[in-house]
Amino acid sequence: MLAVVGTVPDQDFPLITGKVVLQDDFISIQGNRAPVNRGTPALLAAAIKVGEVMGQPPPVGYLVGDIGLGDGSRRLYARLSENSVEGDINAIAFHYLQPDVDWHNRVLFAVEEMAKRPVLIADAGFMYAAKMSGQASEYDLFTPDVGELAFLADEEAPHPFYTRGFILHEEMRAPALIERAYQHENAAAGLLVKGQPDYVADRQGVHTTIDLPVEKAMEAIGGTGDTVTGIVAALIGAGIDVREAAILAARVNRLAGHYARPTPATQVIDIIEQISAALARVLDEKAIMSGQGCFHIKKLGSCPVSEKGQKNKG
Amino acid sequence: MSILTFFKGKRSKGSSKTKAPDRGILVFENTSEVIRAETVLKGEGWRIRVMGPPPEIRTGCDLVIEFPLIEELNILRTLEAAGAEPLQVVPVSSPLLRPVDIFQTKDYGRYFMVRAANMKLTVDKETRAIVNISGGGCPDVPYLAQEMVGKPLADAPAPEEIGHTLCGYALQLAYEEMRRQC
User: Fold this and answer.
1) Residue B91, CA distances (Å) to A161, B22, B59, B87, B94 in order
2) What is the pLDDT of residue A161?
3) Are β-strands B130-135 and A16-23 bridged in parallel, bridged antiparallel, or unpaired?
4) Residue B60: per-residue pLDDT
5) Which chain B residue is nearest to residue A11, measuring alpha carbons?
6) Min CA distance, B118 vs chain A (Å)?
7) B103-181 has which fold?
8) What is the distance in angstroms between the Cα of B54 and the nearest Cα belonging to chain A?
């Protein structure tokens, strides 16, 4: 089961833990609702959609209200460092939290004390803190966009806001940035770099490039990176291998965007509504291309990924 | 010429030949207080810079204000009068991190996007309404989007008014650039 740790942009939203469901355009956790526009609610909504298709239970949310003052984040950090994540959790996605190295370290320490270590995914503010702490390699997957990749590649930057210009100019060369991030131990075991194209990479370099379908408006739409992270986290929570989940997630997000026929004014909820259809199609394609008659979704984990033209390396 | 004006005039010349620290940083509780102090000081004509803190006082999402140390008393007096006192004043001699100052733009025809650091702001050129805010990872980003998207650029709250983090500060830069270009 997947656990998601993050914040809701509502100062009055309580610190709360529980299963998260989708009701219309809102996430709901123990009677507390938050609109799905972007951020952690968008991640959760995407994960819920994937879970429905995969026959998985709803994700468990560890949520708190925070509008940037960091007070809610600190309460959530404290909660996690005292009790860590409980229950049958095989993947944790850490998301929009106020970056704070000290609190990050306490939470990571608590997670590593868990009887069975879950797959650790980090994005957004928590990924910033993970990089700055020097413990990025403790994570299984980071999901940066290209700008955040430049930040990971800059060994001196404590936040994307301080990424040095000469590295920012490297943006068109994501593989070089990936290499640099690993060189300085500032990347997780796996990377899903969100951009045009998307890259799935590890310490050995770029493994897969996903560049179709292309919807240029996606870059402008807030929350589309959150949905990718939600999709990959839910797939990993369903038991799929991290690399394979990352490849699938990039493809599903692109297809969902394509189905939504987006403009730069499209809102992310319109894309989230297309995730179920996009995932179903991608799963069917994989099953057919594998030639193994692997049509049952729950068997996907054993279906090899062999999409033509997408593998850069073996 | 007042003494204050004299000092302000001297500031622009710069003087960094001595080995003792000639610059200080003002450390605040959070980024929104930095933004407020920056507004106060710039409004009073002080030449200060918003920078990244030195490693020993970094927590993860910080800004500080760099100022000429010789003017500490005057600057503190200005901040005190505005109710914007810093937590700490620290002399520095090592280079500070410089915020990103590169803007990237993308023209989608009807829509125009400005990116500053990790934040992107998109406006409908016909209606001048903010249609999307993307990027960033600090908790005020969803809040800023909630408060700004759908509103005309001229009427939406500025990120410096309601943002609290470095992502909020980056969005302010994108917002200013958008207002300059549109």
Assistant:
1) 23, 7, 18, 14, 10
2) 86
3) unpaired
4) 66
5) B143
6) 6
7) Enolase-like; domain 1 (3.30.390)
8) 10
Looking at beta carbons, which residues of chain B come within 8 Å of A265? 111, 122, 124, 131-132
For residue A85, name the pLDDT band (cuts at 50, 70, 90).
confident
pLDDT greater than 70 at residue B73: yes
CB A74, CB A103: distance < 8 Å? yes
Instruction: Tell me what ipTM this predicted complex has.
Output: 0.87
Chain B residues within an 8 Å CB radius of A156: 97
Residue A16 DSSP class:
E
Q: For residue A159, with 0-12 CB atoms within 10 Å meaning exposed, 13-18 middle and 19 or more buried, which class applies?
A: buried
pLDDT score of A78: 97
| Among B163, B161, B159, B181, CA closest to B172 | B159
As a whole number, mean pLDDT of residues B108-119 equals 94
Instruction: Look at A149 and B15; give whichever has higher pLDDT.
Output: A149
Q: Which residue, chain included where needed, has tokens 């692997």?
A: A294
Domain boundary assignment for chain B: 3-92, 103-181
| Calpha distance A170→A182 (Å, rounded) | 16
**Beta-carbon separation of B138 and A148 below 8 A:** no
Question: Which amino acid is present at B70?
Answer: I
Chain A residues whose CB is inside 8 A of the B168 CB are 68
Q: Which of A11, A67, A218 to mutate to test the interface with B (most CBs of B within 10 A)?
A: A67
Contact predicate B124/B113, CB 8 Å: no
Q: What angle do CA A9, A11, A14 make, to 5 degrees?
A: 100
Which domains, ranges and CATH numbers included, belong to chain A? 2-120+206-302 (3.40.1190)
B3-92 is classed CATH 3.30.70.260: no
Mean pLDDT of A51-77: 96
pLDDT of residue A109: 95
Contact between A222 and B134 using a beta-carbon 8 Å cutoff: yes
Strands (E), chain A: 2-8, 16-23, 26-29, 32-35, 60-65, 91-94, 119-122, 141-142, 190-193, 198-202, 205-210
Q: Closest Cα to residue A62, out of A49, A78, A51, A50?
A: A78
| Greater pLDDT, B31 or A49 | A49
Tell me which residue of A68, A94, A123 sits closest to B138, measured CA to CA.
A68
**Gap from A293 CA to chain B (nearest CA, Å):** 40
